[in-house]
Amino acid sequence: MADPGPPEPSAGSPAKPARERLALALFYGVSALVMLGGLGDLAITDLLDAQEAMLSGNGAYPISPPARTVFLTVLHAMAGGLVGVGAASLLMTHFGIRRGHGWAVAGVAVAIGGAESANTLGMFTLGSPFWVITATYLGLLAVAVGLWIPSMRSGPNP
Fold first, then answer.
1. Backbone dihedral region of 6: left (phi > 0), alpha (psi from -120 to 50 degrees) or beta?
2. What residues contact 67, with CB distance under 8 A and at least 6 apart?
3. CA 134 → CA 32, 35, 40, 65, 112, distances in Å?
4. Residue-wise pLDDT tens digits, 108-125
5. What is the pTM of this model?
């Protein structure tokens, strides 16, 4: 009698390895955090202490109302970009990375890497302590990519 081989999975595709599940959770999580961070930045209605100190030379020069408006407008424009990057990354994670498409991993890494690198550098330059949070997003993204790369060798999962 012939050996029947390993049992067939009961429903759907076989379970993904733990490494892949962790990487996918990190991709989803970092994408959501980027989007939520952008929404939080959109909620800022006045200059934060670090921004005020940097723009006024630690209080040596008054900041005119038009300059405040311009700074907040630029902040809100960048925040809208972060919301878009986060939302697009969530979609690329769900429809690309989850199915094993390497282009989606590259897209998420470039989009979030570029946006959060600029965000981190800007906050660090202003003296804001929040740069550590966005730098953590970059670290988590690097971990996710590192965990996912070995699974890319097997090709896309339909």
1. beta
2. 55
3. 13, 12, 13, 29, 10
4. 999 999 999 999 998 898
5. 0.82
